[in-house]
Amino acid sequence: MKIRVIALILISSSLITLAISDSDVKIAGVHENIAAAIRSGNSKVLATYFSATVEITLPAVEGTYSRVQAELVMKEFFQKIPPTAFILEQKGTSSGGAQFLIGTYKSGNKELRTYILLKGIDGQLLIQQLQFESD
Description:
The chain is an alpha+beta fold.
């Protein structure tokens, strides 16, 4: 009986570890896909990670937009200030469970500090807020 209980505990803990590892891999993949979309100035791919509404702060533009509107806002931003690099510097989780990314967006000699807030919605990690600000 004790052997069965110990075996059950070991199997359960192994499955929990696998589930956590799989979740971490998915989150890391989302983070990297978002960074790659910004790095390449691809508003279409970036928009696949937008929630139904997104708060966007850009130099001279600020507002809350629908997913479709947000994609157009970002497309115009990438055209006006095309990326030469995007460096993802920090990732983390807030006390409320939201994910955040902090990076530096470079366009020529211009650098913008970038903040991205993501929340889990219906099993997907989606962008709620996106900010590009001058240092």
